[in-house]
């Protein structure tokens, strides 16, 4: 078969799958999609460039609903990230820190297990775009009496529309080195490819990543949006790195807890509460829980796919020297001037 025929068939299949994926979108969203640049997607047939970032159609619908209806509260906490940067881990750590009076880390007086032993972190801290505002829902968030309300998101900083009245809102951004984020995304998204879409090879995926075409990419823009804000408003935005947290969890947890407004007391430090939280939320402990081996806490995603290797530097097993060079150059070009750097690329 000539290659042009193969391309046509693949495109045809993609279009059919996209029709299926986009069938239930609102007519307003469908209308918006028509005006947006479109590229081949990773998980879904297509990604669309919306407000400067590559998103799936359903994500765009959710962002539009969020932008129209979300009313921030002064005490809100938002955990932000680009996918595959340690979002699940950050949700677990923040939940454990914020709720430790109600849910002691070890076990409460009545022997109740900690919620993180029986629930996946995505059930405890909901995503704005995959849960609360998904499928054109408008959640009644004003009815949440508990403070702080804690949400998570992959929405880029500018699209959160929180400026200029951020007041005391706190955002924690977890950022991972782009080498590992790419490898983690490639494994993850190939597992989730919509039915009928063939796997994306490492080479193809790498090219898309370097072109910025990945969910919520370009990755450098996503990182810089939050990075620059963390420099301008350190009381509002805390920028943490996955890689640093893996290396020194204790000092990063102290930083996180103080920023969130739940600092550890000297007494707690003496009792080893920080180490207990680190252990409860560690990759090894979380991966082996039944709740994280079974079920789906985010629509269509098996919880077990959220826990792969949990290491820093796995990329050395996949990337060729020329790929390493190419990605290092991109990082240099896009990030160096901002002061955002990663230890991995030499
Ligand atoms: P790998 O694919 O490199 O293993 P996200 O939660 O943003 O989807 O990120 C997923 C990545 O974080 C995966 O990386 C996953 O294994 C890792 N991860 C999940 N839980 C973790 C934990 N408790 N500690 C450290 N890493 C974790």
From TrEMBL:
GO cellular component, one term: cytoplasm
InterPro entries for this protein: P-loop_NTPase (IPR027417), Sulfotransferase_dom (IPR000863)
Top-level taxon of origin: Eukaryota
Residue ranges annotated for the Sulfotransferase domain, each copy included: 74-338
Principal EC category: transferase
Protein's UniProt name: Sulfotransferase
Biological source species: Citrus sinensis (Sweet orange)
GO terms classed as biological process: sulfation
Enzyme Commission code: 2.8.2.-
Record SUPFAM superfamilies: P-loop containing nucleoside triphosphate hydrolases
């Amino acid at each position: 078969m000539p290659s042009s025929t193969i391309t046509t068939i693949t495109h045809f299949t993609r279009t059919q799958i996209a029709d299926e994926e986009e069938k239930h979108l609102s007519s307003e969203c469908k209308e918006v999609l028509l005006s947006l640049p479109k590229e081949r997607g990773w998980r879904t047939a297509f990604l669309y460039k919306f407000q400067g970032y590559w998103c799936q159609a359903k994500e765009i619908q959710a962002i539009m609903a969020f932008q129209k209806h979300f009313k921030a509260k002064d005490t809100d906490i938002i955990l932000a990230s680009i996918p595959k940067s340690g979002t699940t881990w950050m949700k677990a750590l923040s939940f454990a820190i914020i709720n430790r009076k109600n849910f002691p880390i070890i076990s409460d007086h009545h022997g109740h297990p900690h919620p993180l032993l029986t629930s996946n972190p995505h059930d405890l801290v909901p995503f704005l775009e995959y849960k609360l505002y998904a499928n054109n829902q408008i959640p009644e968030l004003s009815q949440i009496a508990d403070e702080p309300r804690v949400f998570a998101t992959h929405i880029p900083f500018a699209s959160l529309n929180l400026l200029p009245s951020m007041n005391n809102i706190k955002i924690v951004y977890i950022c991972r080195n782009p080498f590992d984020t790419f490898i983690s995304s490639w494994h993850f998204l190939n597992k989730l490819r919509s039915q009928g879409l063939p796997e994306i090879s490492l080479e193809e995926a790498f090219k898309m990543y370097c072109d910025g075409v990945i969910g919520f990419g370009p990755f450098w823009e996503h990182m810089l949006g939050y990075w620059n804000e963390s420099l301008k408003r350190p009381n509002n935005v805390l920028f943490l790195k996955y890689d640093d947290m893996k290396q020194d969890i204790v000092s990063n947890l102290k930083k996180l807890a103080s920023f969130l407004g739940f600092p550890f007391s000297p007494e707690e430090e003496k009792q080893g509460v920080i180490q207990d939280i680190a252990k409860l939320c560690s990759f090894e402990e979380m991966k082996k829980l039944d709740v994280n081996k079974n079920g789906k806490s985010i629509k269509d995603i098996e919880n077990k796919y959220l826990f792969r290797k949990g290491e820093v530097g796995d990329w050395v097993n996949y990337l060729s020297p020329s790929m390493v060079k190419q990605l290092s150059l991109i990082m240099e070009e896009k990030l160096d001037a901002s002061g955002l750097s990663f230890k991995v690329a030499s």
